[in-house]
Please model this.
Amino acid sequence: MTRTVTRLYDQHLAVAGLKTTQYSLLMYVKHEALPVTRLAALLGVERTTLSRNLKPLLAAGWVTLQPGTDPRQRIVTISAAGGAKVRAARAAWRRAQAELEQTLGAEAVQALHGQIELSMARLAPLLEAGAP
Model:
């Protein structure tokens, strides 16, 4: 189910030259510059995965890595070009959301969000405990 929904959003965001993961990442740093470790935690991904996802955004000039207070720390910051990319992609995101709601129904989409949140809350302790 999640792959199908992601494909729907990816189809819409392709018009803006983004993938769903890239749009999500840009949205996080649009609101606040974040250390790489904190951003990875918020996105629920490993640091190595985040580093791979950041590479095309860095290459495009949509985000920058700034030094943190600790020399080993890097802060992900959105650039002016990244902010413009988010604004350009917002309409595509809304079209994807509208198509999803039109196809499934608003109540089903709301229920789906509730199930995902509940599932994530229940699964989080397993990930934090380092279960195999």
Summary: The longest helix spans residues 80-104. The longest strand covers residues 63-67. The chain has a mean pLDDT of 89.
